[in-house]
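Re: [help] complex structure
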Amino acid sequence: MLNRNRNVETFLGCESDYEESRIVLYGAPFDSTTSYRPGTRFASRTMRAESYGLETYSPYQDLDLEDAKVFDGGDLELCFGDTERALADIEACARDIVADGKLPFLIGGEHLVTLPAFRAVQAKYPDVAVIHFDAHTDLREEYLGNRLSHATVIRRIWELIGDGRIFQFGIRSGERAEWYWSAEGHTKIQKFSFAGLDETIAALKGRPIYLTIDLDVLDPSCFPGTGTPEAGGVRFTDLLSAALRTIRGCQIVGCDMVELSPPLDPSGTSTATALKLLREMLLALEKPYLK
Amino acid sequence: MLNRNRNVETFLGCESDYEESRIVLYGAPFDSTTSYRPGTRFASRTMRAESYGLETYSPYQDLDLEDAKVFDGGDLELCFGDTERALADIEACARDIVADGKLPFLIGGEHLVTLPAFRAVQAKYPDVAVIHFDAHTDLREEYLGNRLSHATVIRRIWELIGDGRIFQFGIRSGERAEWYWSAEGHTKIQKFSFAGLDETIAALKGRPIYLTIDLDVLDPSCFPGTGTPEAGGVRFTDLLSAALRTIRGCQIVGCDMVELSPPLDPSGTSTATALKLLREMLLALEKPYLK
Amino acid sequence: MLNRNRNVETFLGCESDYEESRIVLYGAPFDSTTSYRPGTRFASRTMRAESYGLETYSPYQDLDLEDAKVFDGGDLELCFGDTERALADIEACARDIVADGKLPFLIGGEHLVTLPAFRAVQAKYPDVAVIHFDAHTDLREEYLGNRLSHATVIRRIWELIGDGRIFQFGIRSGERAEWYWSAEGHTKIQKFSFAGLDETIAALKGRPIYLTIDLDVLDPSCFPGTGTPEAGGVRFTDLLSAALRTIRGCQIVGCDMVELSPPLDPSGTSTATALKLLREMLLALEKPYLK
Amino acid sequence: MLNRNRNVETFLGCESDYEESRIVLYGAPFDSTTSYRPGTRFASRTMRAESYGLETYSPYQDLDLEDAKVFDGGDLELCFGDTERALADIEACARDIVADGKLPFLIGGEHLVTLPAFRAVQAKYPDVAVIHFDAHTDLREEYLGNRLSHATVIRRIWELIGDGRIFQFGIRSGERAEWYWSAEGHTKIQKFSFAGLDETIAALKGRPIYLTIDLDVLDPSCFPGTGTPEAGGVRFTDLLSAALRTIRGCQIVGCDMVELSPPLDPSGTSTATALKLLREMLLALEKPYLK
Amino acid sequence: MLNRNRNVETFLGCESDYEESRIVLYGAPFDSTTSYRPGTRFASRTMRAESYGLETYSPYQDLDLEDAKVFDGGDLELCFGDTERALADIEACARDIVADGKLPFLIGGEHLVTLPAFRAVQAKYPDVAVIHFDAHTDLREEYLGNRLSHATVIRRIWELIGDGRIFQFGIRSGERAEWYWSAEGHTKIQKFSFAGLDETIAALKGRPIYLTIDLDVLDPSCFPGTGTPEAGGVRFTDLLSAALRTIRGCQIVGCDMVELSPPLDPSGTSTATALKLLREMLLALEKPYLK
Amino acid sequence: MLNRNRNVETFLGCESDYEESRIVLYGAPFDSTTSYRPGTRFASRTMRAESYGLETYSPYQDLDLEDAKVFDGGDLELCFGDTERALADIEACARDIVADGKLPFLIGGEHLVTLPAFRAVQAKYPDVAVIHFDAHTDLREEYLGNRLSHATVIRRIWELIGDGRIFQFGIRSGERAEWYWSAEGHTKIQKFSFAGLDETIAALKGRPIYLTIDLDVLDPSCFPGTGTPEAGGVRFTDLLSAALRTIRGCQIVGCDMVELSPPLDPSGTSTATALKLLREMLLALEKPYLK
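Output below.
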């Protein structure tokens, strides 16, 4: 009756051991460059606590997370106020996971956490391309005088991989300079929707792909719990479909889900929605090994 | 100027006397088996308090609640912590209403309150079938060791009426075992939507129907105020249409609306939405007698 | 089991009939002149709904509200946006109560509602004096160009009864001009506390007294649910003692309790505190008739 | 480094001087006739504070607010509790703006603030017509005994301009009498949607138009932050499109945006949505002058 | 860098192994009989999550929790809606701890969870007495028809141990019948404060003591996060002192802390206060073993 | 009627020009090193917005802020995520103010903002001493690997000025190592209260003093709106008295008020309390020049 082991908490009951797992979840509770309304630091912790409201079975895919091999490494303990150091810690963790031949799946935090996770993946897969779902371009050269920011993260990634390898969907906000810079051929932006996603997937066939999902790509009606809500976004079923098609059609070598800010949505809907997307993505990633 | 009578509060100004009314509203503020986030116990009380924000006239049906004969019996005073006893009290109340030849319309509370209300109706209409709108299957054999739970309620009803008499719409969540059990022919599940509802209605023509609406069938964007929000649900206008078609096409002998949890939606939108659906359902039920 | 009467809701289970009651509670859900954070309009309704969390028995006075004769007339339906009209409606109601030989006990609403209630009492008791507990002087000549305002209410009452008949306790905020005007002898202000209350009570022996309690006299630590919290206030037990001593020592001919704003205190503590004070005041008023 | 000027706050960085501007924004933080849940008084202030989360560039129109000439005059200091006086102050302000040949763009507050703003515009453009987006008819003769109310505002405007000049879209709530009165030919109501808007715009070509947008025309899923949410509304992209088509097709001589109530939406989504609509409307109004 | 063990969460970093520990913390997230505002089920989980805001060192006692031997067994998974079963599970857990010669320290949940914890202790220490800090008597014979309720828990314990062995402090609320029943000699109530506590401690010297702390003994100003706040309570330093004196002066064989309801206090103050008291109590219990 | 100047917002109506002012208020909305619950970045902005609820007159000192010469420079626009840079910007601003012979009064933000403000003051007054009111020692050598943190700020200041020049009051939390390090003679800590403050003031007579107030020195009952609430703090009147005595008895050359986190206190009480303390401190600082 009494639990004589220490109290363990994981996403969605992902209870595999590290060694046997194929996917490693890890949380980066970091939002230091969030200029306006912080709170994404609470995302991973809140998602774990709310996991128990979710079923492990997916009627969308007829698969069950109980059969999946996923390890939850908990949250990194990151330094607040020293961004470079925090990013270095995230990168080191991602490198460990990659080195062990497992898929690193990062739960943010703000979008800047994608940068070190991507770096770790790129070190192993130099020709990696990026599929990016977001409301915002995130292509600024700097933001409030800072080159390392949630608003610059995709620009920093572009510096690592260059033109033509970043594919952005659902975008509906950004400074004029960002849009014009992208239009020079640096990245490919699909405004407002996932139109053209299937063509992109087909074109990237066989290439290693890093998939980064800023959850504010969702319409705020579905996902109010985020720092900079942008009306006019996609519906949950659109995002779910886009994510599953990407996973099925691409060789995913790293991925993340960022910008959930639980304190901004007291109904808990945003957290539940992120968890549901996470479940479906994990199942899609594991599908080749299940059943 | 001064009101010398005691202070009365009703849903939507439903001010008919008991004797003259055809429909009896009664609240069951019970959520004891809600494992995660309680709060549906506040639904009926909050709906009454917020009623005054709603018009009695429906531009959807060109009917006015002022012409309807609906009595609001207030909330039952239920025992917390002793589920069997609380259910017995609800059943006794529903039996009274049924015995008086009136339609019992229950406002939950968690979904388990449907069980005793259904039992009372079934006692009079042994061949009653069930139309069930919900995000969740509610077909578990037991939940946390408990056979009486919001997660088992439809399974318990199935035990009373057997195979082929339960029609579930909008379902998008459940344990694997529940889906597979249903697929053995015990209930009919329509995933995600109301597809096939009209055929079901046609097939049930002339049969007494109990209509139970778990409001979480709605997408959480429309209805965040519920304990276990499930992304990917139906829109309000879909639900409204489905409910009205069911009422118009079937012989409704009992109905309920459950799982509104007002504390989870500080905007009040969920409560207002439940009230609007209630108004439209009452008007549709009363339509034969109006104008 | 089923309640065949309409749904009734009262403060603290005050279930006496109007005729047999000695005290009449009535709510004035009005906050139209509240310039900053409205919400007192919800006070009376929220107090009724939360009443059931309170015991009817007082260990402070060893008396039980079940023995008291108090009628709750519910809330007046007041016109928003037309202050004079709303005040006229409150006054008419108070006059009815006074005319029937009962004690009018008003639940605000903002403090301005005291003015019409006082007028009704003064019509019967021309020599009535005022004991006023508050954080604010409320002595402005006008506020935002308005002579009828929560910030001017005691000044308006002074215009009705003149110098030396208003006794203010707990005051810790006001414009310089208000303090200086009072110091000219118009009212008697006791800063910060209830010092001198017993002397005031003794001096007023035999005189009819209107007692008006702005609950923000309490320290915001005890009572955060009010529109203009002022640090440095009195504790609950201080206020309770002051109110009971006033009731026991004076001939109360009217009283009120104002400025609870439930939406500002999600913990519900402020509402519960107001209810407890209300219970004790009712019991103290009824004590001569209870055994 | 130190700002030696006083602290200035504007909508969306609208930093033009009054003299050079073509559009003048002004806030009317008034909600005194709001009978149920006040809070629109905080709309303009909150919108200013949250402006910094929004980009000035529109990917919808490829225009940037930095190029526009818009002045923000801040909020009027209005008398609470004396409606006629508050309306007079709003009207005087709007008259000043109109007299200076600028477009007055009002940010409410409750819908009643439209009345004085409209009066000021009508004084200069006697043949002005009204395009009205709303969930509610707002056509009552009086509300709680008050002729000046958010629920009567369009009726009052009709009294000024007569039959056939008010075009209402998205309407889905109102008393039976309002709908029937409109159907007598007084106003033209399009239920639930913007169907027929383009025809209306075409018919009004060349006529001066006052555009009034009650933001509760939006579905509450997109816009929960409003006092009387009505399920079944339009989506943000529908409203955006309708507003832009109206501005492009008509000669707008005055406009407003009302009924945002920030305290009701802790996620901030409603405020951000209102700001985004405001940006797009300002850009559409300025488009002829921008390259 | 990467944590290859599963994610562990404990109170205050209590990281001892079960075997080496002298005190065992265990959570009972149960609030099924809470009639009014549920939420105590979230107490233990929230306390764990917020632990990291607290220092392990006490300047009150000059002791550090890092030196203590405390094991946190996490939360029991309890059946909601079947009170007897949930109580049985708690009792079984407490019996295990007692059997292993360790001190069971229970974190509620509602006050009813004390009953099974007490039973387990009483089985080993038949002459155990109870020291009880609370705002409420909890001496009802039944509550809403239920003998097992937070409002009856001390009465149920009295049935187990009889007259003269229950010492209640800080009490300020209860039904008249409870007070009068206690006054017949069944329990000893100290109204409002801890007066007489030292005498009680002295009298109980050498006797095994179960200490049960309902945190609503605190004034709601210090502790708003509880379901039934009662104004007029003790201050934190009073409670801290009373708890430490009890622990130092008595042979504590079991204890608990109940009725924290985190959702009711969005500031987090109540949770932080409960944690601080917990730290101090653990240190006082461990003091004999620390240097 | 219309304001043709841009919209200006200041603390408490502090409307003096920069040149004529003796005190300069400036906000540092920075909380990047706050590891747990961010939100102090909103303090200065929220205080300005809420200023209008406060009177300018003090009944405590019989002085009026309308007579004071205080300039509000608004908030610095600080880089999030690059702590060193943000601190440099604060220091530059403080240096400007000091260079102009004015008193810099900083509104935080987290406590780390004190460091650059202090540096600017120390550059002019090398023998400056520090009076520090706080719940926490803030004496860590580093925190989460970071030497620049809210938890290390007083240690960093000690490195600038050495032993015996820092006087800490109200302290009730800290790591063991911090307490022991202080006890070696580095700083002087008064636990729990302001005992000894008058002696400290007397001893420091004639010395320039920097006064830094972490508002969490207040008991959380008075001030719940702070990130790390610590039960057992001082009351508002204690803090007010301590601050006024310090200002009257010392030569204040710089001061600040930090750690208000408005989002954590939805009642607004904490913000109102900070504003009241600010008003009183400004009046005490200006007193020599008033009347």
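DSSP finds eight helices and ten strands in chain B.
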